[in-house]
Design goal:
348 residues; alpha/beta; eight-stranded mixed sheet; 16 helices; globular; binds iron/sulfur cluster
Length: 348
């Protein structure tokens, strides 16, 4: 996999447009559509069960330009959540019992108000989880103390490491990323992350480096633990996730003439139990500009919440959000294949 250096948007690629992606996905059905598949298994419409995870995408700016990125993030993306929109998120969370706030991006730490937001959230008693790409910790001296900052606020750290070898990791995430990720993991371990009894959780995310489905999560976790031990690295859990045909991974599939065969794999591996457990059912996703979505993938496709639910954080209404129907399309097959896939790994 050749790594990109610019976002789709910067390259003027037509797949930078969410509507072009939705159009492509909608007109390239392989067998049943996702909606038909749900109907045939008696789980249509898919509905929310509540909100346990309030996932805030604080911006598309990132220090990396990973080949598979569904956000089309990179250093050339400037969209970031303002403090005012963060305040709207805090106002919405006040008075709810939503336990977990999941901060994602881009590299969420690059948002200038990131630390303030974490402090406000933890002061409210929320469990904060940060999707840290690891290399950000070493990207600039101003980020070197992130492990201590995370520790101070008992933030759960979830970090992508596609593989335990440099070749496969760098092919997906960029030259030198593996080495810097290892160093960052060691820094997190040094302050206690991933260490038994520390109460500081460090989870890793594995995703395939090509157009194939992830292997068994438990087996991968055992193998990652064994291989990372050689670098003296410890972590808690490994989440195995499936690449969804969105944004730069969609570009990769199309460019390599693998879209149809990949979709066929996803469709053939459809698992009703995984469909019942998809993360959108208990998640609310908030975009950098405050718009609301069922998940981060729908956010990137600009598929906002269904019309009966509010579409912006300033109109937050938990009752309506809890009772919404989920907006689906063909990319959803990525969440329901095999053992299922979510931001927290397998779902079935
Ligand atoms: S996958 Fe993560 S680290 Fe890579 S470019 Fe996208 S947001 Fe950045
Ligand atoms: S892509 Fe999003 S909306 Fe579709 S099943 Fe997965 S989590 Fe739900």
């Amino acid at each position: 996999m050749k790594t990109a250096t610019l976002s789709l948007q910067k390259r003027g690629n037509k797949l930078a447009s969410p509507s072009a992606q939705v159009d492509f996905l909608s007109h390239t059905s392989i067998g049943d559509s996702f909606e038909e598949k749900l109907q045939n298994t008696g789980i249509f419409p898919l509905t929310a069960t509540g909100v346990d995870i309030f996932q805030v995408n604080v911006g598309k700016m990132c220090n990396q330009v990973c080949k598979h990125c569904h956000v089309d993030a990179g250093p050339d993306r400037k969209e970031i959540m303002t403090r005012e929109t963060m305040q709207l998120c805090l106002d919405a969370l006040k008075g709810t019992d939503i336990p977990t706030v999941d901060l994602t991006g881009g590299a969420p730490e690059m948002n200038p108000n990131f630390r303030w937001f974490v402090e406000e959230l933890t002061a409210m008693g929320k469990h904060v989880l940060v999707r840290c790409n690891l290399t950000i910790i070493l990207a600039n001296p101003k980020y070197h103390d992130l492990p201590e900052f995370f520790k101070k606020h008992q933030v759960e750290v979830v970090s992508s490491l596609p593989y335990f070898t440099a070749r496969r990791t760098d092919a997906q995430r960029g030259e030198g990323v593996f080495e810097r990720s290892i160093k960052a993991l060691q820094m997190l371990n040094e302050v206690g992350y991933g260490k038994e009894g520390s109460g500081l959780t460090l989870n890793l995310v594995y995703n395939p480096t090509g157009s194939f489905l992830p292997g068994d999560q438990a087996g991968l976790e055992t193998e990652f633990k064994r291989r990372l031990k050689t670098y003296d690295i410890e972590f808690n859990n490994l989440f195995a996730i499936t690449n969804l045909p969105v944004s730069r991974f969609l570009e990769y599939l199309v460019d390599n003439d693998q879209y149809e065969s990949y979709m066929e794999k996803l469709v053939n591996a459809f698992n009703p139990a995984a469909a019942m457990g998809v993360m959108c059912r208990n998640t609310l996703s908030i975009g950098w500009d405050g718009y609301l979505y069922d998940c981060d993938f729908n956010q990137m496709l600009d598929l906002k919440l269904e019309p009966n639910a509010p579409n912006h954080i300033k109109n937050f209404d938990l009752g309506k959000i809890n009772n919404r129907e989920i907006v689906i399309n063909q990319h959803c097959f990525g969440c329901t294949a095999g053992a299922g896939s979510s931001c927290g790994g397998e779902t079935a």
